[in-house]
Specification:
The chain is an alpha/beta fold. The protein has a single domain, classed as Alanine racemase (TIM Barrel, Alpha-Beta Barrel), CATH 3.20.20. It has an 8-stranded parallel beta sheet with strand order 7-6-5-4-3-2-1-8. The two termini are 32 Å apart. Bound molecules: pyridoxal-5'-phosphate. The site of pyridoxal-5'-phosphate (PLP) has 14 residues, from strand 8 and helix 10.
């Protein structure tokens, strides 16, 4: 199966459930991304700032770029002019910097708070109480240039589908609670970014509204880092 074939299959499958497909293009070449683009995909996810900046400059301008990786505060400025959605916001400090850089660019940047749901030490994210504390803080109330549009999470990397389903289910319950407590009058708070190649079906069953699928579309990632094609500049 080609990238175009994979893309069309996943896109129609998840969109038939009303779910948005983020094609995770980290480490993939611009040619591979263009193949997915030509097959109709406009939303791509990257996890390194420099790589996303390079690809944004080289690829069609109607692509929506989503930052799905861990984002360092000092790098926000590079993506603030164009990023469409930042999935992994996991601190008030980072949110503060996104707000500042968005203001400089006269934009409002959509963000998802990353919730820690996995039974592992290695995943970034906030606990439920930390999220509530953030949403109650005076600092958060002052932010004019960010908009929290939902939550993002990564489930435990396990073959135990029941465990994954429980993690996503508990996240959905938490999400619904936040909606009532903090976003009752805010129609923008509606995104639940969960599910990757291995667990997107479970994620959708448990309320995902956007799935982040990489290897199932593009094939296994071989190179570790995308190299900018300098000849294209
Ligand atoms: C790489 C990555 C994905 C995609 O993973 P696949 O297994 O290739 O589908 C999804 N979400 C995040 C946060 C990632 O870093």
């Amino acid at each position: 199966m080609s990238i175009a074939d994979n893309l069309k299959q996943y896109k129609s499958e998840v969109e038939s459930d009303g779910v948005k497909l983020i094609a995770v293009s980290k480490t993939q070449t611009t040619e591979a991304i263009l193949e997915a683009y030509s097959a109709g995909q406009r939303v791509f996810g990257e996890n390194h700032v420099q790589e996303m900046v390079d690809k944004h400059s080289q690829l069609p301008q109607d692509i929506e770029w989503h930052m799905i990786g861990h984002l360092q505060s000092n790098k926000v400025k590079y993506i603030a002019p164009f990023v469409n959605l930042i999935h992994g916001v996991d601190s008030l400090k980072l949110l503060q910097e996104i707000n500042k850089q968005a203001a400089k660019n006269k934009r409002v940047i959509d963000c998802l708070l990353q919730v820690y749901i996995a039974d592992e030490d290695t995943k970034f994210g906030l606990g439920h109480d930390e999220i509530i504390e953030l949403l109650r803080s005076d600092e958060y109330a002052e932010f004019k240039n960010i908009r929290i549009v939902g939550l993002m999470a990564i489930a435990t990397n396990t073959k135990n589908e029941k465990q994954i389903a429980i993690e996503f289910h508990e996240l959905k319950v938490f999400f619904d609670g936040l909606k009532v407590s903090f976003f009752r009058k805010d129609d923008h708070f509606k995104a639940l970014s969960t599910g990757m190649s291995s667990d997107y079906k479970i994620a959708i069953e448990e309320g995902s509204t956007m799935v982040r699928i990489g290897s199932a579309i593009f094939g296994k990632r071989i190179t570790k880092h995308f190299k900018a094609d300098v000849s294209a500049n």
